[in-house]
Each structure stands twice: as C-alpha cells, then as structure tokens.
Amino acid sequence: MNKNRRSPRKSRSFDRAILDALGTIIAVLDRTGTIIAVNAAWEQFAQTQGDPTLAHTGVGVNYLDVCRRARGRWSEEALQAAAGLEAVLAGDLAEFTLEYPCHSPTEQRWFLLQAAPLRASGGRVVVSHLNITQRKLAEEATARLATIVTSSADAIVSKTLDGIITTWNTSAERLFGYTADEMIGKPILLLLPPERQAEEANILARLRAGERIEQYETVRMTKDGRYLDVSLTISPVRDQSNRVIGAAKIVRDMTERKHLVAQLQDAEVRYRAVFQTSVAGIALVDQDAMFVAANPAYEKIVGYSSDELRTMTGASVVHPNDLPAQMPLFEELVAGKRQSYEIETRLIRKNGEIRWARVCASMIRDNLGEPRYGLAIAVDITEAKRAEEERQQLLRREQEARAEAQEAVRVRETFLLVAAHELRNPLTSLLGNAQLLHRRAARAGTYPERDVRALTTITAQAARMNQLISSLLDMVRLETGHLRIEPAPLNLAALILRVLDEIRPTLARHTLIWQAPDHPSQINGDELRLIQVLQNLIGNAVKYSPQGGTITVRLIHREAQACVAITDEGIGIPADAIPKLFQRFYRADTIETQKIDGIGVGLYVVKEIVRLHGGDIQVESRESEGSTFTVCLPHLHGAGAPDERSGV
Ligand code: ADP
Question: What is the phi-psi region of residue 564: left when phi exceeds 0, alpha when psi lies from -120 to 50, beta otherwise?
C-alpha cells in the first residue's frame, strides 16, 4: 500500500474541505432528488433564506419537494427549478440552468442554478447556486443607460481617440440625418463643416489629456449639408486601468434655442420701450411687496428714483388712510380671487406732497399659476381731481346763486303784486271821483276852462296809471303762470266794433277806418282779454303816430283763422327792433320812441294772450311810414269763411 495514498476517509474530508472553501453553493442529490451532501456555502445559504422552511434544506431532505413546496414570490421559479432538476435526474437533460431572483429582506440578489449529472456516480446530480447579483446589477445599469441614451432628446455619440464613431443614438440620426449603420465606424470629421475641420484635432488633444469639454458652442453639418448651431459636451471614456480610450459626446441642437433667445430679446426690447416711454406709471413689486422695477413715469409720480424704490415696499408710497381699503383687494389678488382692481388713491411723494392717482393693480403669475409679481399701473389724476373739485364748487356756487336769484324774483313779483293791488284800490277811487267831477263840470258848464282842463288831465293820467298797473300785474301773472283765459264763443267783428266805438270819441287827430267782411266771425275767446289786446294795439297805433293820420282796422278771414290787422301811418319800427318787440321791457331804440311814454310791457302781454288763444301775432313796419300789427285767432269749429273778402 502506498503510504502516500490517503485513506478513503481522509480523501473524503479533503474533498469536503475543497467544497467548503468554494464560494459556490453546492449540494449533491441522489436519483430521488434527496440531498446527500452539501458544502458549507449551501448550509449558510439555506439559513439566510427569507423562507424559514428552507432553513432545513440539508442532507436527507428531498430537494425536489422543497422546490415544489415553495410558496410566495419565487414559487414560479422554484417550480421551474424542480422540473429542470427532474429532467436532469431522469437523464433527459444533460444540464439545466436557471437564473432566478432571490431577494432577501435586506438586499437584492440573483442566483444562477446549475444542475448537472455527477459522472460515474449512479445517477447523482450536483446542484449549485452561483450568486450573480453583481453581473445582474451591471446588466441592469447598462440597460438603463442604454434606454437613457436611446430616448435622449440630445444626440449622443461616442468615438475613439482617433475620431472614429462607435455609437450613434436615435436623436443623432434625427439631428444629422445619418443612420447608425451609416455612421458607426466612420470618422467624426464627416460632421464638421469644411472650414471647421481643424477643430477636431484640438478636441481630440484635449480629450487625450483627460479634459472634459463643457457646452462648446459650434457649428456642425447634417447629411444634406445644412449647418446646425450646436452645443457640445464631450467627456473622455476610460478603460478599467483609467486610460482614456475614447469620448462620449452630447450634441444639443441650439437652432431652436437661438431662435427663442432672439425672440425673447426682441420681446424684451419692445416691452422695455413701452415701459420706458409709457405716460402711465408702471411699477412691479415682488412677493414681499418690495418694488423691483419702476418706469420713469412712475418715478415722476412718486418722486423717488427706481434705485430708491427698490429698497421700499409698495405700501410705503400709499397714503396711510387709503391703505385699509386696498389691503383686502391686494390679498384677494394674491389669492387669485380677482384678476385685477382699480382704485383712486393718494400717493405720498418723496417731498411729502400728496398726489391723487388712479391705480390699476394686477398679478403676474408663472406657468404654474403661482404669483410672481404685483403690477401697478398708475396715472396721476391730481389736476383732474382739482379741476373736478373746482367744477363742483362752481356748480354749487352757481346753484346757490340761481336759488338766490329765483328767490329775488319771487320776492320782487310778490312785492309787485302786493304793491299793484294796494295802488289800484285808491287809484280806482281817485279815477272814479275825478271822472264824476269831470262829467259834472261838463254838465254844469260853469267851471272855469282851466279847471275843466285840470280835471281832464287828472282823469287821463289816473286812467294811464291804471293802465300801467294793469300791465305790470299782467306781466307778473304771466311770469308766475297765473294769467289764465276763460274762453267762450263770441263774434270777433262785434267785439272790434265795440272797442272802436269806445276809442273813437277820444281821438282828435286820427281817422279810424273799419273794414270787415259781411258774415260773422265766430271765435272762441276771452272777451275781456281780447278787448285788452285790441285796446293795446289800437292804443299803440295812436300813440306811435303822434302826427295823426289814418288808423285802419281790418278783419280778414283766412282758411282757419280770423285775423285783425291794425295799420297806422306813424313812426314805424326799425327792422332790427322787430324781432325783439315782444320781449318784456323792450322798446325800440329810436329818438321818436324815446319822446313817447311807455314801459315796453304791453306787446309782451298781448302776445301771451294771443298765444293762450292758440293764435299768433305778426308785425310789418317801415320806419317813418307806419306799422301793421296782425293778430290771427282760430275760427270756432265750423264757423268762418273760406275766402278773404273784406267790406267797409
Ligand atoms: P310801450 O308802448 O309801453 O313802450 P309796448 O310793449 O306796447 O310798450 O311796445 C313796445 C315797443 O314797440 C314800443 O316801445 C315801440 O318802440 C314799439 N311799438 C309798438 N307799437 C308800435 C307802433 N304802432 N308803431 C311804432 N312802434 C311801435
């Protein structure tokens, strides 16, 4: 016996020691699947399983049963393992392998199960579990990276240190128009415009030196020859011994960005111009209500420079008494409960002066709707306010003055009414007695001539005074709306004749002619008021023809009206005076008129009486030749004549 040969027992323990020294988890199964030997790694593995039933997966346990009984997350894989093992045990499979996850509560683990027949051992099978967690994690990381690279919006390209392309992602295909197949293995110089070819040598030199190139803005060329503005970020790729073996580069298309930047700059220029030149004050405050910007118009309103404002809050320029009204509005603005608000407020200037401003406030929000800046647009309305206040004051004063004037008119009219009434009573008595005396004197024929003349003067003047008082009373009644007429059907021709008969005896120098058509002229009128009209007009005809002459009174029938025309041969009326004749207190401004007594009220009252009858009055006149006043009144319904005949 060779003394160097170990005894079988010693040999087994040697084998066992080798098995135990291996990191691989190993068990040997007999043909029934029962474990007949395990190494130390197996024992340890069984104990660290999450499943307590596996803790006893040692010698004597049937491994197929263990696999079949497995429950929970990995039961699927355990059944696959059982099926594979059975196939190997039955000799149907030469080898069975299965990668399976087996995560413990504390770490992620993957194993590779291998089962192979143990040669010349009567159908026994060796089962091993190899921990492949590291490999799996690396694979996962690579897959993740690959996904990132593929799905990146930026072109990602890698190349060797000789400038030969090694990878080319989808975005690179899209950006440059070359497919990966076309580019992998080709020089990167294909992407450089002819005039920039030298750039590559420089880039490669820097990469070899291990330098990373960040956001290098340059121009590259597409397959169809278009130039692209790009930004390159290039990192050296190293091998395990840290040697630079190539480069990975990210190519970002800057065309869109450049376009956007240009657009932004353009917008900025436009808005700055509006901001700087706006006549309205514009100010921005941040979330702490501090000023961040103010335009020249705003600076002018508050008297602070933008720099000064930037150290102040928006509220600090508002009059303290106006703040309580604005704070709730501002809070609603911040809370998004309102879009904007407009308010008239007082602002306090740097020099303490108070200015009124109309302020429109709103909120500028970011894309997510969060408030970023408060915007205030202010217009100085101090002058407008002042003007408005002055206007209001003027209006008040004017209203007061008007009220005072109305009151004065009322007092005057009351006074006139009272005075006229009071004057009239004694006057009536005076006139009555004077007339009585006059008649007696005339009858007796014994009074001296000059006494009779005196009595004539007294009665004439008293009658005139009576007339004046009547005119004044009528005027006051007209103005207070108290002059009323009481119309009744009457024959106008008969009425005129009565008036003429009364007047005729008083005329010394005038001849009175009456012309009228035959048929009656029925109208609806106030007899006394119409007598007053006729007396007035005929009286004027007499008065304003001091040299005497003919006074013609004609009754004319027009279609729906009966008209009385009174013509004299007197002083006449200047053309420019005619439109004003019927205004109260108006008298024609001529020397002749001034020589004749009068107060300019008669025609005013006449016109109103005619108007109240629904009629009108016209004047035709020539200076020094005479005047015609024509009063037209509506016929009583159904009465009157269609033609314009007249008779003597
Ligand atoms: P009064 O005769 O008291 O002045 P009136 O109102 O009757 O007031 O007349 C107004 C004015 O019209 C007169 O002052 C006169 O200038 C003018 N006027 C009126 N009637 C005649 C007339 N027949 N001829 C000339 N002027 C007349």
Answer: beta
475, 537, 540, best to mutate for ligand 1 pocket (most atoms within 8 Å of CB): 540
Q: How does pLDDT run across 462-494, given as a tens digit for each residue?
A: 888 888 888 888 888 888 888 889 999 999 999
**Nearest residue by C-alpha to atom 13 in ligand 1:** 587
- End-to-end C-alpha distance for the chain, whole angstroms: 194
Q: Which residue has the higher pLDDT, 638 or 81?
A: 81
Cα–Cα distance measured from residue 45 to residue 358, given in angstroms and rounded to the nearest whole number:
82
504 Cα to the center of ligand 1, angstroms: 20
Tokens representing 483?
Answer: 């002059």
Q: How far apart are CA 631 and CA 566, in angstroms?
A: 9
Contact 191, 221 (CB under 8 A): yes
**Backbone angle region of 128, left / alpha / beta, with phi > 0 → left and psi within -120 to 50 → alpha:** beta
Residue 611 has pLDDT above 90, yes or no: yes
The pLDDT of residue 50 is above 60:
no
Find the 536 Cα to ligand 1 centroid distance in Å: 10
Q: Please name which of 562, 573, 547, 556 lies closest in space to residue 627, comparing C-alpha atoms.
A: 573
**CB-hemisphere CA count at 13 Å for 477?**
15
* Residue 162 Cα to chain centre, angstroms: 65
495-499: long-range pairs with CB below 8 Å, 24+: 495/525, 495/527, 495/530, 495/531, 495/534, 496/534, 496/553, 496/555, 496/564, 498/531, 499/531, 499/534, 499/535, 499/538
Distance CA 382, CA 349 (A): 12
Q: Are strands 510-515 and 549-557 parallel, antiparallel or unpaired?
A: parallel
Q: How many beta carbons lie within 10 A of that of residue 228, not counting itself?
A: 18
Report CA dihedral (458, 460, 463, 467) to the nearest 10 degrees: -130
Rounded to the nearest 10°, the torsion over CA 463, 468, 473, 478 is 130
Q: How far is the CA of 569 from the centre of ligand 1 (A)?
A: 14
Give the DSSP letter of residue 6. P
Please choose from 536, 542, 544, 607 the residue to mutate so as to test ligand 1's pocket, defined by most ligand atoms within 8 A of CB. 544
3-state DSSP of 76-107? HHHHHHHHHHHHHHCCCCCCEEEEEECCCCCC
DSSP string, 187-201: BGGGGS-GGGTHHHH
Angle at 625 between CA 622 and CA 627, to 5 degrees: 60
* 8 Å CB contact between 180 and 214: no
